[in-house]
Amino acid sequence: MTPTQFAFSTAFTLGLAGVAIHRSHLLSALLCLEGMMLSLYIALSVWVLQLNTTIFSPAPMVLLAFSACEAGVGLALLVATARTHGTDHTQSMNILKC
């Protein structure tokens, strides 16, 4: 494993561990998800550059578009949750109340 691959896999793993550990606040979970998507975007961009082909060139842009959509939906859910429940604590949310 090259140092570059190790760095990206470590960044993704830290984001995944952050989602697993810091799930008490919705905002911290969303930030960890964004970190995971950023590490995937950079890894995919480096992979495309190493291949030297134009076939996979649009793949990082598609991933970036999906990441932006995911961030928009996540922030909309955060605002809606904060307005209805008064906080972003995930323990205060109950699926049966909604």
TrEMBL record:
Pfam families, per database record: Oxidored_q2
GO CC aspect terms: mitochondrial inner membrane; NADH dehydrogenase complex; respiratory chain complex; transmembrane transporter complex
Catalyzed reaction equations: a ubiquinone + NADH + 5 H(+)(in) = a ubiquinol + NAD(+) + 4 H(+)(out)
Subcellular location, principal: mitochondrion
Gene Ontology annotations of biological process type: ATP synthesis coupled electron transport
GO MF, any single term: oxidoreductase activity, acting on NAD(P)H
Enzyme kind, highest EC tier: translocase
Membrane topology: Multi-pass membrane protein
Domain of life the protein comes from: Eukaryota
Localization: Mitochondrion inner membrane; Mitochondrion membrane
Homology family: Belongs to the complex I subunit 4L family.
Function: Core subunit of the mitochondrial membrane respiratory chain NADH dehydrogenase (Complex I) which catalyzes electron transfer from NADH through the respiratory chain, using ubiquinone as an electron acceptor. Part of the enzyme membrane arm which is embedded in the lipid bilayer and involved in proton translocation.
Protein name from the UniProt record: NADH-ubiquinone oxidoreductase chain 4L
Species lineage: Eukaryota, Metazoa, Chordata, Craniata, Vertebrata
